[in-house]
Structures are given as structure tokens and as C-alpha cells.
Amino acid sequence: MILIDAVTKQYPDGTTAVDRLTLEIPDGSITVLVGPSGCGKTTTLRMINRMIDPTGGRITLDGRDIREQPVTALRRSMGYVIQHAGLFPHRTIVENIATVPRLLGWDRHRARSRAMELMERVGLDPALAKRYPYQLSGGQQQRVGVARALAADPPVMLMDEPFSAVDPVVRKGLQEELLRIQSELGKTIVFVTHDIDEAITIGDMVAVLREGGRLAQYAPPAELLSRPADAFVEDFLGVDRGIRRLSFFAAADLELTTRPIVAVDSTAEQMAAATVAQTPYLLVTDTEGRPLGWADAAGRAAGDNSLIDFGHGFTAGTDSLRAALDSAVLSPTGWAVAVDREGRAVGVVAQETIAAAIRAAHAEQSPADARAQAVGA
Ligand code: ADP
Questions:
Q1: Ligand 1 atom 16: the closest Cα is on which residue?
Q2: What is the pTM of this model?
Q3: Which atom of ligand 1 is the closest one to the Cα of 33?
Q4: Which residue puts its alpha carbon closest to atom 6 of ligand 1?
Q5: Per-residue pLDDT tens over the stretch 230-278
Q6: Which one, 15, 160, 173, 306, has least CB within 10 Å?
């Protein structure tokens, strides 16, 4: 565990960048430092690997003051990833990734095979190994940055706005990749961002900092969304926090009905049997069961074969209530389509049923309460 214990950093010009900050950073999880520009995030991160020294308080790693060990050893136990990746421009990708292993004295062959293994781990085509950084896209360079930081298998990863310079689509891919890698490697990651959505997406714990380097709230993302500590946090979270909080509830318990689902080649009798009182619509699928669109049952009986767009489905087993609600809201019929991993319709669910599930989720307990109970149990 990394403990930031009443740490203050005052720069020589009198700026207080961090003000008596205390944070317990748990092992094996992602802790995000988030807040507006200038609130002391980078300063905090750099104090953890001693690129900056605090002017007050102390930082311990597994109970030991980080000043007690040589700074080189400390930094080798901490991978460091920055915006724009900071790659060496005159070294190939594979050489960039092998940098730390080579510094640690690994022979060329071993360092190289480790680098190739990491390229695969971070989702980079091995064919890029011999290229130079300028020959890669921004997103690919960031992946190289992550691979380089992972090369010596450090227990801790410090990441300073690593995905801020790439476009939103690439960024989402990088976030997903980081979560996937983390689920395999279980590093202790401290991640700095100014983007609250990124913090909520990837953080197990989120520390919201305010100007002057003071801690506003430290909580799991679902708790931030349900119980912001004050107006500053609430404002920083932005609009839609109720909707965003639904991401933390599974759609798995929604009661689905298969009754109104008909294949495109169904007979008139089959269609008549599928027509139910609650919905005047039938979900028409292709012969493999993939949804094509909604049909007006009465219209279809009268020979009208036109379909109403169903928007998009949600994946029954893995998606959240937010995804299910979005699917229902986008569907002109007000019914959401649940699909399996292959995209085949497994059921439909009405907006009203989803609304009832949302109310039940509220009534039951907030995710934060659930977590507190799990910890206490
Ligand atoms: P963030 O990462 O949240 O944007 P920083 O940690 O970079 O914030 O900076 C926190 C505050 O400290 C800012 O007001 C910044 O201007 C100030 N600061 C950062 N580095 C220095 C420095 N070397 N000297 C003086 N002030 C600094």
C-alpha cells in the first residue's frame, strides 16, 4: 500500500500545490486523482516516485518511508507513463520498450523477447517493432508508453494523463485495454486525469482534488455519483450523474419476454400468436435470430412489411441498467431489445419494466452501501 500522509508541497515561489493531502492507495487496484487543472495532481504523482520532494508530511510504500531507499530502486519499482508517451525518438519501438530491462542488465535477446511479449499484451502488432515512434499513431505511441512502463514488471504504475492527447474513440480503446491488462496483472496504479468520466470509467477509487491541492472527496466512483461530498464535487461531476450511476447496476435481473419475437419467415398464425396485449409491436428477426426491427402487429397482419428501427440492443448478461435504458429510450416503440454475445435477440423489455428496476435498485441499497457491507462482512 502507498500511504500519502498529510503531504504538503509548497513551491519556492510560495504556491501551495498540495495541501495536507492524506490518501491510502490500496494495492492491486486503480486509484485515480482527478480535478481541475492546477489542483496538484501531477505534483502528487511526482512526489510518489520522488521526482518532487514534499515540504511536509511523508509518503510510505508498504509501511516504509520512500526516502529510506535509493531513489533509483524506488523508480524501478514504479513504471511511469506520461502524455504523448515520451518515447525516445531515435530508438525503435522494440528498443524503447526494452529500455528498462537493458538498464537492469538483461541481455539483448531476453530484453527483446520481453518487449515483443509486451507489444502483444498492449495490443500492438509485432510488425511495428522495427518502426520509430514518429511512424506510429498517437494511440499506438501511448500503447508503447504503457508497454515500456510495464517492461520490468514493476508493482506500481504511475500514469499522468496518459490518454489525454488522443481522440475520444482511441481513448476509449486505450481505457478498455488498460482495464483488460489490469485484470490480468493486478498492478497498483495511480492514474492522473482531469476528465471525470475517465476517472469514473477506470477508477476503483477516485480522489477528487480541488484548487490549492486539497482533497474534496475520496470514494469509489458509484459513491461519488450517488453521494457527492459537497457542491464542488457535484458541480465537477456534471449533469446526468443519476443516469451515469446506472452503469453500476447490472441489467442481468431484468425480466425479459420472448413472446413478441418472430422470425422474418414466420407464418401469419405464428405472428398472431406472438401478438400480446402489452405491446402492439412484434420484434422481427432474421432467420438466425438477429433483430431487424419492430413491426406494427396490426399493420403486418394487413400485409405491411415495413419495419421500425429498433435502435441498438443491450447485451443481456453483461450490460448495465444504463445500457438497457438507453436502448429503450432510443427505440421508438419504447421497448429495449436484449441480445446475446452473437447479437441474437434473447428477449425484449419495456421502458416501464426498466424504470421499475431502477426504482428497485434505489430502494434496495446504493452500490456504495453494498461495498461497505462487503468490506465489513
Ligand atoms: P495539475 O497536475 O493538477 O494540473 P500541478 O501539480 O501541475 O497541477 O500544479 C499544481 C500547482 O502548482 C499549480 O498552481 C501550478 O501552477 C503550480 N506549480 C507546478 N509546478 C510548479 C513549480 N515548479 N513552481 C511553482 N509552481 C508550480
A1: 38
A2: 0.84
A3: 3
A4: 40
A5: 999 999 998 888 898 899 899 998 999 998 899 988 888 888 888 776 6
A6: 306
